[in-house]
Amino acid sequence: MWENTGRSRPAFAKAPGAGQESVWDYPRPPRLLPDSRRIQVRAGGVVVADSRAAIRVLETASPPTVYLPPTDVDLALLVLASGTSMCEWKGRAQYWSLRLADGREYLQVGWSYPQPTVAFAAIAGWLSFYPRRVECEIDGERVRPQPGGFYGGWVTNEIVGPFKGEPGTGHW
Questions:
Q1: Phi then psi dihedrals of residue 54, to 5 deg
Q2: Residue 156: left if φ>0, alpha if ψ -120 to 50, beta else—which one?
């Protein structure tokens, strides 16, 4: 679990209960935190990833983003998708789609940073997935997607907000 950084969270932020984290206690710039819980990603009933060696990226106002080592992902299912984006902290991201053996395709289900900034070198080539496009679980709990169309945060019962991406948060 992440501990409060010592700065005060805004008055509108929910106070975390026992065993919970507030996204308003996460740092800026983001912090990497190893996570040994079981992470599973599925699409159409097919296991895409299964790991106990994840890294969570914790950033103020957003639910954690979970990155998985490529050794724990079925890379044969991934196809490089078009487009890239730029993160001020991590660098340039590339996107991935899934193509299952039966021909079903899931477009832009995840992303990675092949050459991240020095501060994020630990996640070079690791993959994260959008919980709104594939099924993601942490220790058996189904992950809910971060609000908003672009964001990839993983919302679980241990995380409280409000989160960036919810209505009225565009100014954050």
A1: -80, 165
A2: beta
**The 127-129 sheet, strands edge to edge:** 78-87, 91-99, 105-112, 127-129
Helices and strands (DSSP H and E) totals, the chain: 0, 15
Q: Give the pLDDT confidence of 41-65 residue by residue, as tens digits.
A: 999 999 999 999 999 999 999 999 9
Return left, alpha or beta for 89; rule: phi > 0 is left, psi -120 to 50 is alpha, else beta.
alpha
User: Does pTM surpass 0.90?
Assistant: yes
Q: What are phi and psi for residue 42, nearest 5 degrees?
A: -135, 155
Phi/psi at 75 (nearest 5 deg)? -65, -20
Q: Which of 59, 55, 19 is nearest to 37 (CA)?
A: 55
Q: Does domain 21-160 have CATH number 3.30.230.10?
A: no
Q: Which sequence spans correspond to the domains of the chain?
A: 21-160
Residue 61, Cβ density class (10 Å: 0-12 exposed, 13-18 middle, ≥19 buried)? buried
